[in-house]
Design brief:
259 residues; alpha/beta; Oxidized Rhodanese, domain 1; 5-stranded parallel β-sheet; 10 strands; 13% strand; globular; Thiosulfate_sulfurtransferase
């Protein structure tokens, strides 16, 4: 996988560019040439637990209406250092889109705007055909799986990663979790990922070893999506997503540790 791609990569290829910002930002501030707007709230499920995937039929209709076909190579972006775009990409991945054809712009709209053309021109995409793959393998794990893994987590055989902020972690986290705020992975000035050697050093410092299975969670699956893609970018092969995250964990009576 190459989840994060630079602006030069996007410019040189025929890809479906998806802007996940609010419609007013897309229309008034501008967007990448040819980009279609699929706002974050449009693919955030109103059903079930917070942060869960949208219904499959709604997702298929959303992408088809945006002119994104089943075999499209997709690059998503936001203006929040990639965290909302990452959620779009991971949603596509979990619903069966080819992982090798899913990317996040390394940076965001603000970083693109510094050096590249933007436009406020209306984009009227031609409807496409989009079918998801219900049989695709995904990295999802559920409440029961995470609970069953607690002994292995406590023993250090599996790394459970909490991608929230320090204060959230201190207020309550799953037993055995290590804390890694997703924002530590990005360069505030460049608005994209920090250099790979810095990322590997940071992950090593937190005990997140590429040779061990990692399970990631946050609150509602947005921040964890970004961290998942970063680990895959760095070559981590065994990375799982606890989609329900702490929201589901608490609602189902999972144990919490404070401090």
């Amino acid at each position: 996988m190459q989840p994060f791609v630079p602006a030069s990569w996007v410019q040189d290829r025929d890809v479906a560019v998806v802007d996940v910002r609010e419609p007013w930002e897309y229309d008034s501030i501008g967007h990448l040439p040819g980009a279609v707007n699929v706002p974050f709230d449009a693919f955030r499920s109103d059903e079930g637990e917070a942060g869960k995937l949208p219904p499959r039929a709604e997702w298929e209709s959303l992408l088809a209406d945006a002119g994104v076909g089943s075999d499209a190579e997709i690059v998503a972006y936001d203006d929040t250092q990639g965290v909302f775009a990452a959620r779009f990409v991971v949603t596509a991945l979990l619903l069966g889109h080819d992982p090798g054809r899913l990317h996040v712009l390394d940076g965001d709209f603000s970083s693109w705007q510094r050096e590249h053309e933007t436009t406020t021109d209306t984009v009227d995409p031609e409807a496409a055909s989009y079918e998801s793959d219900p049989d695709a393998e995904t990295p999802l794990v559920d409440f029961e799986t995470v609970r069953a893994l607690l002994p292995a987590i406590e023993a250090g055989d599996v790394t459970l990663v909490d991608t929230r902020e320090d204060w959230e972690f201190e207020e309550g986290h799953i037993p055995g979790a290590v804390q890694l705020d997703w924002r530590e992975l990005v360069d505030e000035e460049r608005r994209g990922l920090r250099p790979a050697d810095e990322l590997r050093a940071l992950l090593a410092d937190r005990g997140i070893d590429p040779k061990r299975r990692a399970v990631l969670y946050c609150n509602t699956a947005r921040r964890v999506s970004h961290t998942y893609l970063v680990l895959r970018q760095l070559g981590y092969e065994s990375v799982d997503l606890y989609e329900g995250s702490l929201t589901e964990w608490q609602e189902r009576g999972g144990e919490l540790v404070t401090g």
